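Build the 3D complex.
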Amino acid sequence: MLLDLFLSFLEIGLMSIGGGYAAMPLIQAQAVAKHGWLTMGEFADLVTIAEMTPGPIGINAATFVGVRLSGIPGAMVATLGFLLPSMIIVSLLAFLYTRYKTLPALQSILKCLKPVVAALILSAGLKLLLQVAFGEGKIALQNVDVFGLVPFSAALFTLRKWKPNPILVLVVCGGLGLLAGVVGIL
Amino acid sequence: MEQKTGKLKTLWQLFSNMFLISSFTFGGGFVIVNFMKRRFVDELHWIDENEMMDMVSLGQSSPGAIAVNAANLLGWRMAGFPGMLAAVLGTALPPMLILLVISTFYNAFAQNRYVAFALRGMQAGVAAIIMDVACNLLGKLFKDGSILRIGLMAAAFAATFFFGVNPAILLGIAILIGIGLTFFGKEAGPSAS
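Done.
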């Protein structure tokens, strides 16, 4: 189990290039799709928590998944796995950079990586959207959850139009969810 | 002797400054990098602004989290290998501790009826945030107008969304294409964005 955790987060750490959101599809592929450590709903909660607390999503996810699977040793093993590849590669690049002051292959690689990262983030976003719109149920018209779809559309519209702080959007959505829930009970 | 205490002091400063910055910066890598610039360039004068920019772009183009990578580079620059360890540890520890606490209480927390309502609402918000990020990236890609790169995006999307291909494999293929293009001396699209 610990070895699985380590290897999974090693892969996530190695392949997440281009900042926080790039790690997200990789975490989803490993922790939800491949190993079933998290449900899609728990993954959505994890992204929410990562968005609202300081620190990179990779470390947040490693700690969250690690603790739930095998306590503090799990968290340490997973985080180490996430950090190790970047520590080695960055150190290596720093050495090469100070030596040659230029890295021609890197620019070309990044140009090809960016479209793929965009595709992966889009795919992860759509999967989250399906989770919001249909819950854990089947994708069918009668399963549509209006209480998920309406706040999603409103939030996306607000983000595109006014570019507010994402944390503010989350707080408002959480408040609306709470309100709808309480009204639903009454 | 004096040199030794001087080095220890540098290590401690690296660790404690990164720990503080990492504890209080919400909103991802670039926010942290801004705080690092303010502290290490403007206040401590350890490095100049150009060096900081180089560190950011290197950290951005390497795997892993930008903040951790920038801390890594700063650590090497100031105090070699021990410096790197001190800076990375300082950056990684706060999110670990915070998530340790949250994860421990998550199960009890998420089962509470009212918390579940709020979390459900927030899921809609998170999906919107991710789609917003995706829209921004796709907008840039289409504005750039390189057929190769748009095709790459479409193929990668179909592979992962419809066929469930592991993202790591797709990223690996992209890296190979990038290396291939350098090797054959062709440009991958007009401008570097």
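The mean pLDDT of chain A is 88.
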